[in-house]
Amino acid sequence: MLMLSLKKGMQMKTYNYCYEEGLLEDLIDFSIMKNEKNILVQIFCGQEKQTLDYVSKTILKHLPNAICIGTTTDGEVYGASITTLKTIISVSIFEKTFLKTAFANDEDSFQCGINIASNLVTPQTKLLILFSDGTHMNAEEFLKGVESFDASIPICGGMAGDNGKFEQTYIVSQNTLLSAGVVGVSLNSDVLHVATDFKFDWKPIGLTHTITKVKENRVYLIDDTLASHFYDKYLGSDFSQTEFPLILEKNGVTMARAVIAKHEDGSLSYSGNLEEGDQVRIGFGDAESLMKDPIEVLDNLHTINVESFYIFSCMARRRFMPFLIKLGIGSFSKIAPASGFFTYSEFYHHNGSNKLLNQTLTVVALSESTKPLSLSKPTAHEDSKKNTSYSKTIQSLTHLIEQSARDYDEQSKRLEEQMNYSKNLLASHKQFLRYTVHEMNTPLSVIMSNIELYEMECGRSVYLENIEVAVKSIFSMYDDLSYLVRKDHVHYPKYKIDLVDYIRSRIDFFAQVANIAKSLFIFTSNCEKAIIFFNETKLQRIIDNNLTNAIKYTFENKDILVSLKQEDGRYLFCITSHSRKIQKPEKIFEEYYREEKAQDGFGLGLNLVKRICKEENVTISLQSDENQTSFCYEFKVNAT
């Protein structure tokens, strides 16, 4: 099968062949080429390595002066057709372009790039065609090596494929077949015109994610989540490795990174390097963009009078929507001969920098012609006209995904704004509380001091006693608020505390409050001392809240029983009051809950007590019936 390009008056000729089996001599008439001087043969082999080896050696037997490179593929471009499991042979004959070939198989990918560039580049080099293996090479480091030698020369080509197996790929340079490394050809000329361009039809969708642990092209963590688990979450365990890449932007170029290998530790290897901190989003194929004729959108290709196209397209494009990809490829052959292959990654040069691309269609247009520029736009394919309904359906689905993604992004932004507003409001609220608590202490202290001074000079007064009781209640609330505001910012050290003395001191403090409420504290203890290792501020919150609650809810003229017992390596502190039965004991420690709505308070005290007890491993027990209610707290003896 032969595609022949021999346009009258043009300097460059290209012959394209499709080989399946049998003798190569039955397919190619080598006699028409044997007297040519500058012959470039590119072999795009979708078959086994033996075929690649056979084709290259047979060609060189008949055309010993030819420059020959080749690669295994994940599909081939043959004019307007896309093939698989076949071998495409592209023979380009130049009039005024000198060719050089070389290969490198250093273990260090960066050094591979330096070595092959140093062997290929001349002062007249207009283009480097490079094929690397697709399973061993760190292609990004390789391209950096090429760039370090000369950052001005356009490049093209890509990583070899093995029909989606990701097991073993092969490349060839002249008679040398390689399973690892890189092969290349330089096109050197004073008259050769080269135009390159690329088409990227994948769009990001969903949230932005961060690469949090990576080593070159092996990613361990995304958003601090194991890389494989990240994909399981968003795409399921059977996700397509190539069709849903990570998309990022670097130096003005939108790039994709597709998964090429999954490791036992849950990490993933990508077709190109990533860096810690890279912001990425999951990508999907944009059918609307895929359906656009590449000739119409690849503006760079309109700058020369094209005589040949070399096409290097990502394997994901062929596998994502084969019908649409075929339509796009077909446009090139209406202008000039076209050949190429579907790669595991594409090589491209942009603004003095070599780029490793994925999901892209990269195209090189060549010409030695001196004729005036003439590039007509192709007419639409008949297949495209026949499948308008199918195309519209795909286009609508793509639009639905895009619009849903935009709506989701807008909702996320609104939610983030609301969260920021809530955070700022909460921060302001906390700041107000801190200020209020700080400012409360001074006037309360002044009131208490003046009450004591007045009583020393003028004696006690029932009015001042009522004021003092009220101030002590405010002091208790102040202490609660102060603890709540400061608890996350202050360290509360522990000291040895005698529970007997401490309980007595707090009873003395609230005795006047109880007296006004017509109650009396009765304290009993079976031990003279009860030493615990505890923080005094936290202990005060436990005792004070229980004493004030007992005063608040005890019936008039009923005593409040306070007891401390030592038994079985523990201290049991209990407060018993004669009060109504607690109706919902399961809720009594909840924030803002109060049994009796008529009583003053915020319902924060017992919730605060519960949190402290949980922090300090203090056990709480509650008993309540029609006659009395008891709260008991179990402290460890000499706890350290």
Question: Could you write a compact summary of the structure shown?
Answer:
This protein is of the alpha+beta class.
Radius of gyration: 41 Å
Compute the average pLDDT: 85
The figure for the number of domains is 3
Largest sheet: 8 strands, antiparallel
Q: Share of helix among residues?
A: 25-40%
Termini gap: 90 Å
Measured by DSSP, the beta-strand proportion falls in 25-35%
- The stretches of 5 or more residues where confidence is low (pLDDT under 50) are 1-10, 380-386
Structural write-up:
Helix content is 34%, strand content 31%. It has 3 domains: 13-197 and 289-366, no CATH class; 203-285, Elongation Factor Tu (Ef-tu), domain 3, CATH 2.40.30; 493-636, Heat Shock Protein 90. It starts with a strand and ends with a strand. With 640 residues, it is of the alpha+beta class. The strands form 7 sheets. Strands 15, 16, 17, 18, 19, 20, 21 and 22 form an 8-stranded antiparallel sheet that branches. Its EC number is 2.7.13.3.
Helices, strands, pairings?
Blueprint: E1 2-5, E2 13-19, E3 38-45, H1 49-62, E4 67-72, E5 76-78, E6 81-83, E7 87-94, E8 98-104, H2 109-120, E9 125-132, H3 139-149, E10 155-159, E11 171-173, E12 176-178, E13 182-188, E14 193-200, E15 202-215, E16 218-222, E17 225-226, H4 227-235, E18 246-250, E19 253-257, E20 259-262, E21 268-270, E22 279-285, H5 287-290, H6 294-297, E23 308-314, H7 315-320, H8 322-330, E24 338-343, E25 346-350, E26 353-357, E27 360-367, H9 382-386, H10 388-458, H11 462-486, E28 495-498, H12 499-516, E29 520-525, E30 531-534, H13 536-553, E31 559-567, E32 570-577, H14 605-615, E33 619-624, E34 629-636
Helix pairs in contact: 2-3, 10-11, 11-12, 11-13, 12-13, 13-14
